[in-house]
Specification:
This protein is mainly α. It folds into two domains: about 1-125, no CATH class; about 135-235, Iron/manganese superoxide dismutase, C-terminal domain (minor pseudopilin epsh fold, 3-Layer(bab) Sandwich), CATH 3.55.40. Helices cover about 55% and strands about 10% of the residues. The chain is built from eleven helices and three strands; from the N terminus they run ααααααααβββααα. The chain has a three-stranded antiparallel sheet. β1 (about 165-170) and β2 form a beta hairpin. α1 runs parallel beside α6, α5 (about 65-90) runs antiparallel to α6 (about 100-125) and α7 (about 135-145) packs across α8. It is globular and about 55 Å long. It starts with a helix and ends with a helix. The model is unreliable at about 1-45 (pLDDT under 50).
């Protein structure tokens, strides 16, 4: 069983992402021919995918792009539930020392963070108007970066780093300082003790349907649609 299991699970992250984007959780269910909806019905849903259809019609983001992105996010939520359910059963069965348990535990960070980061991303979109110059986020950005313009320049440059990943404005919860970070993978590179304030998804699925390789144009569209009140509410 161990070899067969590992052949299913030891995939490249990019390959697994493709399956998630298609809404297929056949690898998780162990039944490759089953649909997303069928497999979802078998899982005790600890997490429910949120509805972000309010973003449809957002300037610079086509309906096709957003609906594909929503479907990918829903796959992460479903896979998170399936992993938690499977790991819980393995714990009850005393299989914690198995290779299968270890591989599923490693996968959990990828699926859970894929779910949660997309929620942060969608929730800080859909706004109109700029950052409130009298608000606490404007003041904090100015304090930590010298000016909001300097922060924006650094954040956009972070988002343009070659490769797949996320650009994230974090707040260090110990010092309160705001720092822009590049996060290469869902489950790797998050700074310990920091809270996300603003999330930008720069995996290809977030922009290539509309923008092709013109990532800079996508980032400009992102900035036109930031929900600044949501971002500010995350600030301590």
């Amino acid at each position: 069983m161990g070899e067969e299991f590992l052949n299913k699970w030891i995939l490249s992250r990019r390959t697994f992402l493709m399956f998630s984007g298609l809404g297929s959780i056949g690898l998780l269910s162990g039944l490759p021919g089953r649909s997303f909806a069928q497999a979802k019905g078998d899982v005790k849903m600890a997490y429910t995918a949120k509805d972000y259809t309010r973003l449809l019609g957002m300037e610079g983001f086509s309906e096709t792009l957003l609906k594909n992105h929503f479907a990918l996010y829903q796959g992460y939520a479903t896979n998170t539930n399936k992993l938690l359910d499977t790991l819980g059963q393995m714990l009850r069965d005393g299989k914690m020392n198995s290779t299968e348990y270890a591989e599923l535990k490693r996968r959990l960070g990828w699926e859970f963070n894929g779910m949660r980061l997309h929620e942060f991303y969608f929730e800080n979109l859909g706004g109109k108007g700029g950052l409130d110059r009298t608000g606490k986020l404007f003041k904090k950005l100015s304090e930590d970066f010298g000016s909001v313009e300097a922060w924006e320049k650094d954040f956009k440059a972070t988002g343009m780093i070659r490769g797949i990943g996320w650009a994230v404005l974090y707040q260090d919860q110990l010092s309160g300082k705001l720092i822009n970070f590049w996060v290469n993978e869902h489950d790797v590179g998050h700074p310990a003790g920091c809270a996300p304030i603003l999330i930008l998804d720069v995996f290809e699925h977030a922009f290539m349907i509309d923008y092709g390789l013109k990532r800079a144009d996508y980032i400009e569209a992102f900035f036109k649609n930031i929900h600044w009140k949501t971002a500010e509410a995350r600030l301590q």
